[in-house]
């Protein structure tokens, strides 16, 4: 059933290159879902968090600005089928640098509104534990 829904969603957005890129890459989908969950962790969506999310989509993943709204629509539909643990499971077997990148992106989203809510801290801490990443790795500059 989940695959049928995914195929239906994919067919709706098939013409958009950014959505197609996300739909065809389960790890990218999982990362964007985790970033979106971080945006929602404090119970509100701030403009600064959305600006950070859009920048990460463009700069880190090469998603065109013109596709980001449709990517968000796709994630809203896909997100109902995937919980946080399932999304994190996509990362467990990846190399440490890729896992650190997810953690850094999540921290960047959490800090974007200049207010670090306890719910954001808990989500980040739980994610770091699941990915076997030290909090120190999140604040270290990339090599």
Automatic annotation (TrEMBL):
Q: Which positions fall inside the Co-chaperone DjlA N-terminal domain?
A: 33-138
**What Gene3D superfamilies would the database entry show?**
TerB-like
Would you say which domain of life the source belongs to?
Bacteria
Which Pfam families is this protein grouped with?
TerB
The record's InterPro entries line, in alphabetical order, gives:
DjlA_N, TerB-like
This protein's name:
Co-chaperone DjlA N-terminal domain-containing protein
